[in-house]
């Protein structure tokens, strides 16, 4: 990942004539319409088909499950209309309020998510790797996520030990550890990548 420069065209969202419908269920968003699910997954690998751990392509017959941060991003892009189970339409402000309850430091994390997504990267939760995001260049089922991204605010304190631990974990799973530093006032993100090698 070239810090703050590289853009992938293959993962961008194709234009949609009308927003698709997503239903808020707990802290997830469900796209029940199968054609819509395939369209969203096939145009940027948003969400995951329900019950399919590693989907291969768009030939599935399952609803799509989205994280709140994905739903918020798609709503701001006018690609997804979010509703409650009883049919009430949720505004972007409603979704942002829910996201702030779900994610610590949501505004900073969202800025990183948005930056990566706008550049065409595929961004998934990185919790199983102990970081904020796992980032793909092409998409799940096509390649493995080559980057693990941890978000830090400007002026953060991080120890050399923490960097070594994160770098070693990333190397163990054949990924690069990257620190993302969002500058919320400037709406920019700086990326610092670490490589691990034996001396």
Can you describe what's shown?
By secondary structure, the chain is of the alpha+beta class. It has one domain (20-194): tRNA intron endonuclease, N-terminal domain (MutS, DNA mismatch repair protein, domain I, 3-Layer(aba) Sandwich). It is 28% helix and 25% strand. It has helices at residues 34-42, 68-76, 92-102, 106-118, 160-172, and strands at 20-25, 28-31, 48-49, 64-67, 80-83, 89-90, 122-125, 133-136, 147-151, 176-183, 188-194. The strands form two sheets. Strands 3-4-2-1-5-6 form a six-stranded mixed β-sheet. The protein has a five-stranded mixed β-sheet with strand order 7-8-9-10-11. α2 runs antiparallel to α3. The two termini are 23 Å apart.
CATH 4th-level superfamily: tRNA intron endonuclease, N-terminal domain
Radius of gyration from the alpha-carbon trace, in angstroms: 17 Å
> Roughly how much helix do the residues carry, as a percent range?
25-40%
The CATH C-level name is Alpha Beta
The helix/strand class is alpha+beta
Major sheet: size, sense and barrel closure?
A: 6 strands, mixed
- Ranges with pLDDT <50 over ≥5 residues? 1-10
The ordered string of helix (H) and strand (E) elements is EEHEEHEEHHEEEHEE
From the spread of the alpha carbons, the general shape counts as globular
Distance between the first and last residues' Cα: 23 Å
What quaternary form is this? single chain
What value does the average pLDDT take?
A: 84
The number of strands is 11
Biggest sheet strand line-up: 3-4-2-1-5-6
Report the CATH architecture. Answer: 3-Layer(aba) Sandwich
CATH fold description: MutS, DNA mismatch repair protein, domain I
Q: Total domains, how many?
A: 1
């Amino acid at each position: 990942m070239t810090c703050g420069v590289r853009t992938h065209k293959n993962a961008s969202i194709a234009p949609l004539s009308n927003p698709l419908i997503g239903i808020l269920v707990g802290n997830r968003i469900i796209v029940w319409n199968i054609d819509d699910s395939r369209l969203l997954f096939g145009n940027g690998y948003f969400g995951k088909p329900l019950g399919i751990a590693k989907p291969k392509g768009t030939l599935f017959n399952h609803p799509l499950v989205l994280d709140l941060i994905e739903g918020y991003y798609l709503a701001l892009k006018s690609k997804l209309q979010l509703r409650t189970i009883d049919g009430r339409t949720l505004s972007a402000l409603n979704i942002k309020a829910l996201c702030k309850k779900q994610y610590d430091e949501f505004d900073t994390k969202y800025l990183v998510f948005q930056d990566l997504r706008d550049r065409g990267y595929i961004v998934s939760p990185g919790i199983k790797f102990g970081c904020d995001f796992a980032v793909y260049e092409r998409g799940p089922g096509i390649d493995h996520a080559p980057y693990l991204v941890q978000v830090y605010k400007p002026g953060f304190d991080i120890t050399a030990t923490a960097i070594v631990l994160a770098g070693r974990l990333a190397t163990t799973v054949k990924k690069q550890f990257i620190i993302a530093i969002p500058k919320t006032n400037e709406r920019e993100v700086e990326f610092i990548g670490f490589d691990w090698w034996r001396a």
